[in-house]
Structures are given as structure tokens and as C-alpha cells.
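The material for today's practical consists of a large collection of protein records. There is nothing in a record beyond a sequence line and a structure line. As an example, a complete record with its sequence and its C-alpha cells follows:
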Amino acid sequence: MLIKSANFIISNTEVAKCPKESIPEYAFIGRSNVGKSSLINMLTQRKSLAKTSGRPGKTQLINHFKINENWFLVDLPGYGYAKVSKKDKKTFQKYITNYFVQREQLVCSFVLVDIRHNPQKIDMEFMQWLGENQIPFCIIFTKADKLKPKAIEKNVNAYLKELTTSIWEEAPQHFITSSSKNIGRDQVLEFISAINNDFYQHRKKTF
């Protein structure tokens, strides 16, 4: 997929205020400091489309970006150890939950996981919640440039084994990425492109 345009549309905390257009939507979410903003900028090849920060938890709104005028990329607040109050965390949880449950345009979510770490309880619980609510998702392993190939394979296999042991018979589709090395960009965008093609072909047949 060639990214011809990538434009910020709106930020908010209410699903009702999200864009009304009936076009495919892809949400990106993960623990704070997982490299979400850097990944989004790498995918779109825009250096500052999503704001990066050394301070975990900077993204605190539902951020919609319109890509190629025919699909939305949604940057969601990170979860985990963001330096915000307990009250704010509950607020985030509420509108993130509302987004996933209520947003009809959402066709797939990407859960970002730092490839350097063992499976984290908070990630596993969130993916289980997505599964229980029948919300399609894939896993994106980030920061692959920090490990050697054998370590990458070992860590990914360990993660997928944990998933298939504790949650599913078959692990969700996954991608291995590095924002600094541009690894995995084509694979993620090809996946999105395939879903978009199916979506628009189905819509042509419907109308």
C-alpha cells in the first residue's frame, strides 16, 4: 500500500463524536511506552503524525487519522503505567471500552507488545477481553531492532505458546516490527489493504 495522504481529523473522549463515515477503521493500542506513536509514524511515513514522548501515557484521547481518504487509523491511549491519577485511568478505561464495544466501523485492532519482554499479565487480560467481546485483533511486536534474530524468534514463540496455552487454541495473526529500522511496515499495510479491498468490493455488491 502506498500512503498518499495521512491527515489528523479529530481527538475526543466520546464514541458519539467519532467520525460518522462508513469506512474501515483500525485501532492501535498497547501498554504505555510500547512505541505506538513511533510505529504509527513509521507506517504512514510521517515524522510527527502521532506525537512521540519520553513520558509514558502522553496519548490520552481517541485520535482519528484519515489515510488515503478511504480508511481511518485510530491512536488510542496506552494502558499500564501512565503517570496519571486513578480517576483519570478509570476515565480512560471507560471510553476505551466504549470505543471497542460501540464503534461499528472498527474492523481490526492492533495490540502492540514490546518484543523484549515476557508475556505481561495486563496484555494477556486485554487480549482475552477482546476475544470475549468478539473484537478482531492482531498482535504487533515492536522494537525488534533491540534483539538479534534468534532472540526474536524465541520471544515470539514463547508469547504465542502462552496465548495458545491459556486463552486460544490458535494464536492471533502477528507482525514483527521496528520503527527505527522500518521492519514490518509492508506486511502490516498489506494486511490492511487486503481487508480494505474486501470491504469495498462487498460494498459495491451491496449497492
Q: What stands out?
A: The longest helix spans residues 185-206. The chain has one domain: 6-206. Helices lie at 36-44, 86-102, 121-132, 149-166, 185-206.
